[in-house]
Amino acid sequence: MAEGTSLYEINVDRFWQRLALLHGHWSRHLEYVSKNKNKDDDSATKNKNNPYPGWNGCDIILILCGKSDDAGYKRNNSIHIWLFGYELLSTIILITRRDIYICCGSKTSQTLKQLQPNNNNNNNR
Fold first, then answer.
1. pLDDT at residue 22 above 70?
2. What is the pLDDT of residue 35?
3. How many helices and strands (H and E) does the chain possess?
4. b or e along 65-76 (b: 16 or more beta carbons within 10 Å of the residue's beta carbon)?
5. What is the three-class DSSP state of 30?
6. Which residues pair with 64 in a beta bridge?
7. What is the pTM of this model?
């Protein structure tokens, strides 16, 4: 394998579609909360009529994936597999309203280079 190439291939289009789905659901929740929140309480985050439940008004999405310990099912690992198609061990993903930050080792960073806009002509991402 040549230096700088990845052992794993990420389905780039699927990654961006799924990230947009996740981010869109979260963003719509934040919009709903900001439109329906009273200044005196946090009832909008707990409103049972919220069409985008489960976020509880969070400002940032943080996804941690530690080293493999064969402990079975973990939600964090599942979201890695859903987004990337692989479990990215020892990786931290931070999703803000405008950006995504990924902290990982050098081997994983080689794999993630596939997602950069200058690769595969993905200039709209």
1. yes
2. 82
3. 4, 3
4. beeeeeeeeeee
5. helix
6. 92
7. 0.75
